[in-house]
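Quick one - first record:
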Amino acid sequence: MTGEETTAVIGPEGLAALVRVLVARGRTVIGPTVRDGAIVLAELTDGDDLPYGWGVELEAGHYRVRPREDGAAFAHSAGPQSWKTYLHPQRERQWSADRGPDGAWAVTEDDTPPPSYAFLGVRPCDLRAIAVQDRVLAGGPHSDSRYRARRERAFLVAVECTEPGATCFCTSMGTGPAVDGGYDLALTEVVDGGGHRFWARSGSDEGASVLAELPRQPDDPSVATTARERVDAAAGRMGRTMPEVDLQVLMRETLHADRWNDVAARCLTCGNCTMACPTCFCTSAEDVTDLTGDHAERWRRWESCFDLEFTHLPGGPVRATGHSRYRQWATHKLGTWYDQFGSSGCVGCGRCIVWCPVGIDITEEAHALHAERAAGGAQGEATA
C-alpha cells in the first residue's frame, strides 16, 4: 500500500547516496553511463558512474554523444537499450535435460532467483513501456512467471524529461515528458544559477523510506516550481510528432496505401527497430545439445517479425515480402495493439528512428499515410 507522497530537494551528493542506499539494501542498481561512444544502461556501483556532463545528438539513423557545459546527469534522450533488456532478457535458459546411465532423461527447470533490480533514470516513455510489457507478459491467464518475478522485485527511479531529443515524440503518444505514477521515486533535474539539484518525490512506501535516508538540501519551493515549468516547456519542444488523428483507424484504413511500397523499397528488414523498441516482446525457442547428446538445453531468445522465418508454416512464410513485414510491424504497433492490450504499442521514445540504419521514421510514415488518406487514396480495409 502506498502512503502519502513525500518530497525533498537533493543535490548530486544525494544522488550518489541514493546509489549507495539501494546497493546496501541488496539491490543491483542499473542506470545510464557513458561507454563505447554511447550512453548505455549498465550496473552502477557509484554515483560518479552516471553520465554527468554528457548529452546526445539524435536523428534518423544517427546517434552521437556530446559534451555538455552544465554538468547535468540526465540531459540525454533514450539510448540504444531499454529496461526490457533486464526485465525480459534477450536470451534466457528455460530448462536443461541430462540423460542418466539408464538412458532416462531428467529435466530441470531453470529456477535461478532473479536479481533485485533498482532502475535509476527511467524516462516517462520507458516507464509507460514497462507498464505496457506488464500487461503483455504479467497480465492475463498466460503470464510469464519469470518476467513477473523480476518485475515484482524491481525498484523504479523515474527521471522526468526537461530536454527532449530530435527524435522524441512522447507528447503525441501521451507518455511524457512528465511522469504520472508507476514509480517508487521520481526525480526532476534542475541546473541553473541556483546550483545543481533534483526535486525528488516518493511514489511508494519503499520509495519514501529510501528518500528519508538521503542527504537533503534546504527546502525551497522554487525548485519544484522550476522543475514543473521545465517539464511543461519540454512538452512543446518535441523533435517529432504523430499526426493528430486516431492512429488505430488510420492504420486500418491505409492497408492498401502506396506509401507502403515506398518504405518497402528502403527497409532492410534487419529488425533493428524491434530489438531497440522497449515494448516489442516476441520470442522464439532455441534447443541446443552438447557433442555427446547427453545434455540439452532450451533457451528463449528475442525474435523479430521482420525475420522471414518468423511466420514460416509448412506452406512457406505468411509474410514473404519486406512490404508485408514492415506493414505488419507498424500497423500492430500503432493500431491492432489496441485490440489486444488496450493501448498503443508505441511510447514515442524514438529509438526505432535512431537505430534504423537507413533512417526510416515511423512518424514520417504515419504523416505520409494520413496525407494519402486525406487526398482520397488508400481507402477501405484489406481483406487479407
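second record:
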Amino acid sequence: MDRYSSFEVLKAEQTEGRDFRVQVMMREEATVAVIAPHGGAIEPGTSELALAIAGEQLSFAIFEGTKAAQNRDLHITSTNFDEPRCTDVVVRSRIVVAIHGESSLEETVFIGGADALLSSHIGNALEEADFAVREHENPNLQGKSRANICNRGTSGAGVQLELSRGLRSNLFESLRTAGRVRQTQVFHQFVDAVRQGLSHAGLL
C-alpha cells in the first residue's frame, strides 16, 4: 500500500528540494512525452532512462525521490499520480511513454499500456536488440486502466515499460545514486531500441 494517495497529501509531509524534486520540459513541437513518475531513488534508473529516451526532441516529466532513505514512501501509484507539473505535460501531449521499475531479478521488460500498436512497435524494437519483453502477469502492472498516467495523454492511450530490477542493474555501474551516473552499453542499447520503436511508429 502507498503511504500517500495523492501529491497533495504527500507534499504536506515531504519537502521539495530535500525529499523530492520535479523535472519537466514541454516541447511544443513534440507529440510524445516520456515520464518517470517514480524516479530518483523510488524506482532507481527510471529518471535516467526517461531523460535519455526524450533526448533533445521529446517532452519529459519526472518526479524523483531524493531522500536519504525510505524513498519508497514517495511512491504514488500510477492511477493516482497527480503531481501538477508532471500531469500538465502529460495532458498536453498526444502520447505518453511511462518508465517504471519492477522488483524481480529476472532481466525483463514488462510492456503494457492501452496503445497496443505503439507497444508492438517498441516491443519489437526491444526484442530485435535482444531484450526479453512480455506482459506482466499482475494486472496492476499492465498499465491498461484509463486512469493510469500513461493513458492520460490526448489520445487516451500510451505505453508503460516496467523494467525489472535485474535488467536495471545491467544498465548502470550500480543502482545506487553514484553508480547511476555511470551507464553501461546496455543502457544505450535500451534507449536506442525504444527510440527506434517510436521512430517506426512515426513519432520521432
